[in-house]
Design goal:
By secondary structure, this protein is mostly helical. The protein contains eleven helices and no strands. The radius of gyration is 21 Å and the shape is globular.
Length: 319
């Protein structure tokens, strides 16, 4: 039995409550950034532009290349997950990845991305595509969480790390004990069986792609900070950024306002290392434009040009 997550329409009261939580979280993030900027030392713009001009000739191309590599590895991951059970080329994988980003922009935590990929397949393939997308995002989240724990250990937060590890242990134990219990027609055992059907070599390549993608956007963030603030410490910054990405991954938000949440977290974790709050906000905004706005614009082009619809014919499947 394959993995079949059930998506039920929530009650209006629940929808309103969740949206209020997200809005309050985002407003709190914006307030925190504004408050820190008001109390931050003024930024010497002439010196800032001088630093940019001095290093831009080789740093800026590298930053742009990391944005391309970030989405390239995302496309490769999706290509690997789909092509093992039906014919699938990288060009089509690119269309689906960028179109899904565009669809998920204004949905909570990018949930629209799942529909954005599913509309390229027949209706009977929808559950499998959603399951593969969960696997793809799950591996990426696991890699991000792993680096977050390493960063917390490096910064000396061993007690919270120990608490997280104990919590994960109890979660795994509970999942094992209740693996056969049905929840709205879905069982944990079905998810495990679904993942086990994916060849180990494919899962290894997806994990490697997730690792390389993490390196791309984390190194790009550091490069942006270094471009504006060359004296920033490398290992301390990467450790702080790992916590930013790990916490942002679980924060309730909308993707088009992701820069506000990441910006507030980055200000909190990077400020103790002497990085000006204005520099952090600028670097976060530039990274958001490169890694979200531009890919979403390309995805919108794909949606308009190709007008993907539910395919009537289903492809052959190994499930």
């Amino acid at each position: 039995m394959y993995f079949a997550p059930m998506f039920k329409r929530p009650y209006k009261a629940k929808q309103i409550g969740l949206n209020l939580v997200k809005i309050c979280w985002i407003l709190g993030a914006v307030w925190y950034i504004s408050n820190r900027l008001q109390n931050s030392p003024s930024l010497h713009w002439d010196q800032l532009f001088h630093e940019i001009a001095q290093h831009a000739w080789w740093v800026v191309p590298g930053i742009l290349m990391l944005s391309v590599a970030n989405r390239f590895f995302e496309v490769l991951k999706w290509h690997e997950l789909v092509r093992w059970w039906q014919p699938f080329n990288r060009k089509e994988a690119s269309r689906q990845v960028f179109a899904a980003l565009s669809v998920g922009l204004f949905t909570p935590n990018g949930l629209g991305e799942y529909l954005g990929k599913a509309i390229f397949f027949s209706k009977k393939e929808t559950k499998k595509i959603i399951g593969l997308n969960l696997v793809c995002n799950g591996f990426q989240a696991s890699v991000t969480g792993f680096f977050g724990l390493l960063g917390a250990l490096y910064l000396g937060y061993w007690r919270p790390v120990l608490g997280v590890l104990i919590g994960l242990l109890f979660f795994v134990l509970a999942a094992y004990l209740f693996r056969l219990k049905a929840i709205k027609g879905w069982r944990i055992a079905d998810s495990v069986a679904f993942v086990q059907q994916i060849p180990t070599a494919v899962k290894n390549r997806v994990v490697l792609g997730s690792f390389l993608r993490y390196l791309c956007f984390s190194q790009q963030y550091y490069a942006l900070l270094w471009l504006f603030c060359p004296e920033i410490p490398y290992l301390d910054s990467l450790a702080a950024l790992s916590l930013v990405y790990a916490l942002a991954a679980v924060a309730p938000t909308f993707q088009f306002l992701d820069f506000a949440v990441k910006g507030s977290l980055a200000v909190f974790w990077l400020s103790p290392f002497g990085v000006n709050e204005w520099v952090i906000v600028i670097a976060t905004t530039v990274g958001w434009l490169l890694n979200t706005v531009l890919p979403v614009s390309l995805g919108a082009f794909y949606l308009i040009k190709w007008k993907p619809q539910w395919k009537s014919a289903s492809a052959s499947s190994k499930f």
